[in-house]
């Protein structure tokens, strides 16, 4: 029985695919809440035993048999649950879900949730006689156990019979709401607390958690919360459970990946033909069918070599800009040509110094097709290759989860004071090498190594030309998750950068690299565009205050370092670029000198 509580059109379409007389479908036009829906399920059930689960969880193949065996062996047993595995939003096994054993007292039920709700199986008549409290939008299962434990018989099997899905990106708003309902339930069953002091302590603790969760959307906080929910499995059990999940996921992809449907796109400029030639050769070797080269103001000598390269290979298309217009207009022009003039379904974007691994495209396409099958055609989707030279990607390869690596909303030029403080604590653990996730949701990605479909380009549009260069890829790819789609970083697909990063002045990166950098145009655009992005993300008074606080600290530290290195002129340029972004949202006309991008 599939019961939809005001389901989306996409969910209804998925359900309609099944033509099986054993499946009954019930849908409500409007949402009535989980409690009311579960009460409806109990009354619609045709058989004496009812097993429930949520729509995003996965059932172990032995779940029904083992729990029914327990109920059949003891006629007085009303409800049986089990332990569970923990999986993430990508159906990847994390470990065993940490949960308490079945409590033996009312105070025990009040202090912890007895069952993982989706694991329970019980007698249908019991559910009908003990309905969920429809006034509770959260915690209705905990309230039910509290109300019935003393007059019912419960059992919790030690077996892990469900794959319980918990998204890695914790919603602070939802968690705060959970705390509010926990206090409501605590008030309803306060008589179970052994003393007034105990009740006061639990109430105070709940309020404290809610305050902490004001920062729940920060990566370090989300990582800490997630780490508390699971523990590692023995290797044999981990491999067996992972194999079962993989077999289910592979059903979504019915055909082999076909890399011949992919066009690669790269932008080059200046005197970089030697780098470009290696990138083109690597892209074809990885399986690209065609290559678009945007000659973005290359030298006369490099342009002649590009023309000769294209003349010897009919799969290469050259688009030429007389002057360097910046990466955003150049990549946009190449993408427009792909959509309007070419027939391939996928576009693979590469920098002109990128050397993709031979299997990179195959891995990217495999993951992308799986995710597209899950999301459907109405949501954008893209996959990004790992670039070991990128500090975030390198940390992901070492075992850090992606949610921990990106600065939170409210940061300024990648800096956030609270995140810096929290990272000093051992809140986030690295995942063992054998259990690191093959791909992870990320908020944005560079152009280099990005694979996306023609349909996604039509959904999210083209890069903003006025960003010129730097962070234009950040703004562009951030549209994908902002629209409800998926942007996935793929561990198995790697791209090597063979040219040094411009801002690594004197071997430094980050703030030091900016202060020591010698290119005025690049410095200006990298700062202005990043601050524009940070500012656009910081919505609401709290985030705006956080942004300004981080700005002041960043600029104070930058000024101190500039004084020590005698680079005050560079500091003034950074300060002016940040002011242009914040004071006018980046719309102030940029003078001609800054448009002469080198």
Overview of the structural elements:
It is a single chain. Residues 254-259 and 585-598 have low confidence and may be disordered. The longest helix is centred in the last third of the chain and has 25 residues, at 541-565. Helix 11 links the parallel strand 10 (262-270) and strand 11 (290-298). Helix content is 46%, strand content 17%. The chain is α/β, with parallel strands linked by helices and 598 residues long.
Task: Looking at this protein, list some descriptive labels.
598 residues, alpha/beta, 4 domains, 46% helix
Per-chain topology:
Blueprint: E1 2-4, H1 9-16, E2 25-27, H2 34-44, E3 49-51, E4 58-59, H3 63-73, E5 79-87, E6 93-97, H4 106-111, E7 121-123, H5 124-129, H6 140-148, E8 154-165, H7 172-188, H8 196-212, H9 219-227, E9 230-231, H10 235-250, E10 262-270, H11 273-286, E11 290-298, H12 300-311, E12 316-321, H13 327-341, E13 346-351, E14 354-356, H14 360-375, E15 381-386, H15 391-398, H16 402-405, H17 417-422, E16 439-441, E17 450-453, H18 454-460, H19 472-482, E18 486-497, H20 510-516, H21 520-537, H22 541-565, H23 568-584, H24 592-595
Parallel strand pairs: 1-2, 5-8, 10-11, 10-13, 11-12, 15-18
Antiparallel strand pairs: 3-7, 4-8, 5-6, 5-7, 6-9, 13-17, 14-18, 15-17, 16-18
């Amino acid at each position: 029985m599939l019961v939809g509580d005001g389901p989306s059109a996409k969910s209804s379409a998925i359900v309609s695919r099944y033509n099986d007389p054993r499946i009954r479908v019930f849908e409500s036009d409007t949402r009535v809440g989980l409690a009311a829906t579960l009460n409806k399920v109990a009354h619609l059930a045709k058989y004496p035993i009812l097993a429930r689960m949520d729509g995003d969880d996965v059932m172990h193949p032995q779940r029904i048999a083992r729990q029914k065996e327990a109920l059949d062996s003891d006629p007085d047993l009303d409800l049986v649950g089990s332990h569970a595995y923990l999986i993430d939003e990508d159906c990847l096994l994390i470990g065993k879900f940490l949960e308490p054993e079945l409590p033996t007292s009312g105070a025990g039920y009040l202090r912890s949730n007895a069952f993982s709700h989706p694991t329970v199986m019980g007698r249908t008549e019991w559910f009908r006689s003990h309905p969920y409290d429809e006034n509770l939008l959260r915690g209705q299962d905990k309230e039910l156990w509290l109300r019935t434990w003393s007059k019912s018989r419960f059992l919790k099997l030690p077996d892990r019979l469900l794959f319980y899905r918990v998204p890695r990106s914790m919603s602070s708003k939802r968690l705060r709401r959970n705390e509010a309902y926990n206090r409501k339930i605590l008030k309803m069953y306060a008589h179970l607390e052994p003393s007034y002091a105990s009740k006061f302590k639990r109430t105070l603790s709940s309020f404290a958690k809610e305050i902490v969760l004001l920062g729940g959307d920060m990566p370090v906080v989300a990582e800490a919360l997630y780490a508390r929910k699971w523990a590692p499995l023995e290797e044999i059990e981990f491999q067996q459970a992972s194999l079962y999940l993989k077999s289910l996921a592979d059903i979504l992809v019915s055909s082999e990946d076909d890399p011949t449907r992919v066009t690669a796109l790269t932008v080059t400029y200046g005197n970089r033909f030697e780098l470009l030639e290696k990138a083109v050769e690597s892209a074809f070797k990885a399986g690209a069918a065609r290559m678009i080269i945007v000659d973005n103001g290359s030298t006369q000598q490099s342009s002649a070599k590009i023309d000769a390269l294209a003349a010897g290979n009919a799969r290469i298309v050259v688009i030429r800009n007389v002057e360097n217009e910046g990466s955003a207009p150049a990549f946009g022009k190449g993408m427009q040509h792909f959509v309007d003039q070419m027939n391939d379904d996928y576009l693979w974007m590469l920098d002109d110094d990128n050397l993709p691994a031979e299997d990179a495209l195959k891995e990217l396409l495999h993951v992308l097709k799986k995710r597209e099958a899950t999301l459907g055609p109405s949501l954008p989707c893209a996959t990004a290759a790992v670039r070991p030279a990128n500090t975030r990607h390198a940390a992901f390869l070492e075992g850090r989860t992606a949610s921990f690596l990106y600065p939170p909303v409210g940061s300024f030029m990648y800096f956030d004071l609270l995140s810096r403080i929290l990272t000093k604590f051992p809140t986030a653990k690295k995942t063992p090498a054998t259990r690191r996730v093959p791909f992870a949701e990320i908020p944005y990605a560079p152009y280099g190594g990005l694979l996306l479909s023609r349909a996604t380009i039509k959904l999210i549009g083209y890069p903003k030309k006025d960003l010129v260069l730097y962070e234009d890829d950040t703004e562009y790819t951030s549209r994908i998750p902002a629209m409800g789609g998926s942007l996935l970083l793929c561990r198995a697909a790697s791209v090597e950068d063979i040219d040094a990063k411009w801002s690594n002045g004197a071997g430094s990166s980050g703030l030091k690299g900016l202060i020591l950098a010698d290119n005025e145009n690049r410095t200006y655009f990298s700062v202005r565009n990043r601050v524009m992005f940070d500012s656009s993300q910081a919505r609401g008074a709290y985030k705006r205050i956080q942004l300004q606080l981080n700005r002041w600290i960043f600029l104070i530290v930058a000024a101190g370092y500039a004084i020590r290195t005698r680079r005050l002129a560079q500091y003034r340029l950074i300060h002016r670029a940040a002011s242009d972004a914040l004071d006018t949202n980046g719309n102030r006309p940029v003078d001609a000198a800054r448009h002469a991008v080198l």
